[in-house]
Protein 1
Amino acid sequence: MEFYEVLENRHSSRSFLDKEIEPQKLGKVLKAAMSAPSAGNLQSYGIYVVNSKDAKTELVGACSYQDFLSQAPTVLVFCADVKRSSTKYEDRGELYAEQDASIVASYCQLAASAEGLSSVWVGAFDPLEVSRIISADPYLVPVAIIPIGYSGESPQKSTRRPLAEILREV
C-alpha cells in the first residue's frame, strides 16, 4: 500500500475479529520499529508483545476497562527506556525516551494499517499495573498500548480540524 493510502485508510478500531495475525505480518509491523528515528539513535524503548489471553484480560482492568483489549489477537505495549536515554541526556532523558517510544508506536500502528490490520492507540492506563502485568523492568515505563488485529467493524473516517486552524507560521 502506498504511504498516503496508509494514512487515508488508517482508522481506530475497537472491535476485532477472532482471527490470529499471520506471523509474517506481525513481523513486518515489529520490524517497522527498527526504522523509527530516536534521540541520539539510542533507541530508548522496549516493546512487549502480549498474546496471552490472561495477560490481555488483566490489561483490560489496568486500562480503565476497555474491553476491546481482550478481543485483539495481539496487544503491543510500548515502553520508554528511561535508563538508556538518561545515560546520555540526564534529566531530559525521560522526555526523549517517552518521545522515542511514541514514535515507534506510531510507526508500528502505520505498518499494521499497511498490512491490512486495524489498531487503536490506548493512552488511558495505570502504568504501574501495566508494568506488573507485562513484568517490565523497573526502568521501562509504559507509554502507549496498541491492540492490533483484523477489524470487526467498519470505522468511519473521523473529522479533522482544518489545517489553517492548527498551523502557525513563524
Protein 2
Amino acid sequence: MESINIGIIEDDRVIHESLVSSVNMYPALNLAFDAYSVEEALEIINDDIKLIPDVILLDIGLPGMDGISGIPHIKECLTETDIIMLTTYEESEIIFKALCSGACSYISKKTSLKVIMDSVFTVYRGGSYMSPTIARKIAEHFAPLKKITVENKTQLTDRQLQIVKELSEGLSYKGIANKLNISIDTVRSHIKKIYKMLEVTNKLTVINMYRDGKL
C-alpha cells in the first residue's frame, strides 16, 4: 500500500485548512508538515521535520519569500521531493518560471480538492499534472508556428515590419512611437493588425518569427 508524505505551504487560512483536512481523509497520505510561508517551512524542514515529504503543495503568492523564489531553497534541503505549484496565477511567464525553477506540476486553485489530491498520487507515481487551462497554455506555447507563406509576408506593410524590427531590438511601445515619430496609439493599432495577419497572440512569437527570417 502506498504511503505518501505531504508538505503544505499556503498562506490563505481557508485553503490551508481545507488542504490539511483533505490530506487527513486519505489513509495513504501523511501530513509531513504544514506552513504559512517558505521561511516557516524551511525552519521546520531544517529543525523539526518528522517525515520527509515526497510531495509539497506550494503556493506562489506567499508573504515574505514567494513560492517560486523558495523552490531552490526547498530543493536544496529536499532533493528528492516533488513540488506541485498550487496558485491563482495562470500567466504563461509565471507558469514557465515555476517549472524552470524545479516544480513538476502546476495546478490552479480553482481545481477541486479531489483533483488536487489525485494529482499528488500522479506525481508520486512519477507523472506530472497540469490543470486543463494550464496544459492548454503550455501546448500553445510549444505548438509549431504556422508556416508563413510569401503571401503572408507581403501582408505586412513597411511600417509594420519596421515596428516589428524595433520590438525585436527591445524597444517599448512608447520607445517605438518616439523613434518613428508616431503616437503610441498608432503603434498599438499596428501591433493588433500584425497579430491578426500572422494569427498569433503575443509579441514574443512575432519577434521570434522576425529573428528566424520568417517575416
